[in-house]
């Protein structure tokens, strides 16, 4: 995660795109939300919503067309977009691709559940083989039946592209086979429990391939690329990789066909209009004819949404308190389970040379977290950030708030920091040899205890932390450095405390192998293996301690599916405390429920990036017009 606030920006280059890949990548990377500023609509007012005579009238809703704010305003305009998932430039695979194409299964990272879509069922034939049966009711928009070979082609191309990329790590998928038109066999390179296998194969939820199946197995262009990638010589493969990762095929303007509930009808400079595909298996759940993406000059949907120029937006909510009065009467949020954490990150000092950090000791880290007073932050919030009201545990705040996941019960016994518990903080510091001289704390060496905070001067929780520590008797220095210096110092362990931002989009995503034992360890320098007090929930260690190797624990959890490993990982985080969640920011979308209804299970409504596209696809879901 190269940047603490929006680390995905640094992964947008073609080279990084190839190295990252998509197969097996869902547990490695999960998206973060970024802050946006309000702007004004494009000239003409409604971003093309008057096209075909629908949706105009000064922002009046219509039962004929569902109008959605186009979230790619700062990226590719509609006429530039394409449906090639391997060319990251000007891609339209998410918008509007996720409406035009379907996927085999829908995975909810917030609920850690998978729901069938094109896939009718699945099961593990053995510990490293997933078998999938497809529904035979899906057809491409030209009437051709969707078959297993369509998905298999896409995965074989992805595997070949990954194998040809620089420093390619071993993919999760070893092999894919279309046993017949509606049966797929997937071989894995590692043993996984069923939910982790589905999450990382047919239910991947990150990146372009997660949005749908874009390859048609008998399309001439896909056939040519597939043949060269899978069976070509080394030079031929390299040329094919270069071609497929730079070619815009098929363009949104070229009448492409998909197999989702909507098909491309019209593409303008500031609008994409899609029409309902009547032969979609779940078309009866849709009671309107058109779905449009409306483009505005600002990448902030607040104004066009508030003025009725669009009916919904995928992102940009919640808004600050002073803007809430402008929202429509039927304003409702969705995707509320999607969020990003705002954390204090400690330099834990493992393997660091040339910098003496006081936070090598977990007790010193805990002491600082105890001194913090979260109640003093609440009056400073403006309606967007939320306080993380629970014990640090690396579970999304919205998941804990809902209370449906078993972790909500686990963390009730965890150590709750941020209570300005100065007595406990003092006890922990004295255990490590610190002492009080008057109003000031002294280090075990007899020096005045002082720490520096690198960046974060604009964060409300950091400002409160500085005041709390100063009042407690610890000297605090605030340092603001440029991005390059920030990256260099955190990677080399040359700081004491810094702010960090971490995607919190799922109970499993927060514990991916590429995130905790790899990325977070590389910037917080925690000791990968450490003893923690046991049993879980007892910080005094009534049963002694247990040595936990974080990477091995995650692997055991993924292999067995045993939630005890997850529970112990949460406890390790709470007691080791390389970082402490103190705030989180929801990354929600919104729709006007006066005129529209989203009826879909909560794991999708509040847990899936493109819930707005998924709702009308599901056999047990719907997106309906309910206005007058």
How is this structure best described in words?
- There is one protein chain.
- The chain has 628 residues and is α+β, with helices and mostly antiparallel strands.
- The chain folds into 2 domains: 64-332 and 593-627, Periplasmic binding protein-like II (D-Maltodextrin-Binding Protein, domain 2); 339-584, Dipeptide-binding Protein, Domain 3 (Dipeptide-binding Protein, domain 3), CATH 3.10.105.
- The protein is 25% helix and 21% strand.
- The strands form 8 sheets. A 7-stranded mixed sheet has the order 8-9-10-1-11-23-12. A 4-stranded antiparallel sheet has the order 4-5-7-6. Strands 14-22-13-19 form a 4-stranded antiparallel sheet, with no helix packed on it.
- A hairpin with a 2-residue loop joins β15 (435-437) and β16 (440-442).
- The protein is globular and about 80 Å long.
- The model is unreliable at 1-58 (pLDDT under 50).
- Belongs to the bacterial solute-binding protein 5 family.
- InterPro entries: SBP_5 (IPR039424), SBP_5_dom (IPR000914), TAT_signal (IPR006311), TAT_signal_bac_arc (IPR019546).
């Amino acid at each position: 995660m190269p940047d603490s606030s929006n680390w995905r920006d640094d992964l947008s280059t073609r080279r990084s795109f190839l190295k990252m890949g998509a197969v097996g990548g869902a547990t490695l990377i999960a998206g973060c939300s970024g802050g946006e500023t309000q702007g004004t609509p494009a000239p003409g007012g409604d971003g093309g919503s008057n096209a075909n005579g629908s949706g105009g009238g000064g922002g009046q809703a219509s039962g004929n067309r569902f109008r959605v704010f186009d979230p790619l305003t700062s990226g590719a305009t509609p006429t530039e977009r394409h449906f090639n998932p391997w060319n990251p430039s000007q891609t339209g695979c998410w918008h509007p691709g996720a409406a035009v194409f379907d996927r085999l299964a829908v995975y909810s990272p917030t609920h850690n559940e998978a729901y069938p879509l094109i896939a009718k069922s699945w099961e593990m034939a053995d510990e490293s083989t997933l078998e999938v049966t497809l529904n035979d009711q899906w057809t491409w928009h030209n009437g051709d039946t969707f078959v297993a070979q369509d998905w298999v082609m896409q995965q074989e191309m992805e595997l070949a592209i990954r194998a040809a990329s620089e420093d390619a790590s071993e993919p999760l998928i070893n092999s894919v086979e279309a046993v017949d038109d509606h049966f797929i066999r997937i071989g894995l390179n590692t043993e996984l429990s069923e939910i982790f296998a589905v999450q990382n194969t047919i239910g991947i939820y990150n990146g372009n391939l997660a949005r749908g199946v874009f390859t048609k197995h008998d399309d001439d262009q896909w056939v040519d690329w597939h043949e060269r990638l899978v069976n070509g010589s080394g030079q031929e493969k390299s040329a094919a990789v270069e071609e497929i990762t730079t070619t815009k095929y098929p363009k949104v303007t070229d009448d492409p066909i998909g197999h989702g509930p909507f098909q491309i009808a019209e593409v303008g400079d500031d609008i994409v209009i899609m029409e309902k595909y009547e032969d979609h298996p779940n078309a009866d759940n849709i009671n309107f004819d058109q779905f449009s993406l409306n483009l505005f000059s600002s990448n902030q949907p607040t104004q066009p949404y508030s003025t009725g120029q669009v009916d919904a937006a995928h992102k940009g909510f919640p808004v600050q308190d002073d803007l809430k009065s402008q929202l429509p009467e039927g304003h409702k949020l969705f995707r509320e389970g999607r969020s990003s954490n705002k954390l204090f990150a400690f330099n834990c000092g493992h393997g660091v040379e040339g910098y003496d950090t006081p936070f090598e000791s977990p007790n010193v880290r805990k002491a600082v977290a105890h001194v913090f007073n979260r109640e003093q932050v609440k009056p400073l919030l403006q309606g967007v950030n939320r306080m993380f009201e629970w014990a640090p545990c690396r579970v999304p705040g919205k998941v804990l708030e809902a209370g449906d996941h078993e972790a909500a019960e686990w963390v009730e016994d965890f150590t709750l920091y941020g209570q300005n518990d100065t007595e406990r903080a003092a006890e922990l510091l004295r255990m490590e040899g610190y002492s009080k001289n008057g109003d000031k704390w002294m280090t075990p060496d007899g020096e005045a205890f002082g720490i520096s905070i690198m960046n974060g001067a604009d964060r409300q929780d950091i400002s409160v932390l500085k005041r709390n520590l100063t009042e407690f008797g610890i000297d605090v220095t605030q340092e603001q450095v440029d991005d390059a210096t920030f990256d260099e110092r955190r990677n080399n362990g040359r700081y004491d405390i810094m702010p960090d931002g971490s995607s919190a989009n799922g109970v499993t995503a927060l514990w991916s192998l590429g995130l905790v034992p790899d990325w977070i360890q590389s910037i917080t320098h925690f000791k990968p293996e450490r003893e923690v007090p046991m049993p879980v929930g007892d910080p005094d260690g009534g049963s002694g301690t247990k040595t936990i190797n974080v990477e091995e624990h995650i692997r055991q959890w993924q292999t067995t599916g045993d939630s005890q490993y997850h529970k112990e990982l949460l406890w390790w985080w709470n007691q080791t405390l390389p970082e402490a969640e103190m705030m989180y920011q929801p990354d929600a979308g919104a729709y006007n429920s006066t005129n529209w209804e989203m009826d879909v299970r909560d794991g999708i409504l509040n847990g899936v990036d493109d819930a707005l596209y998924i709702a009308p696809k599901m056999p047990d879901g719907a997106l309906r017009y309910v206005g007058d």
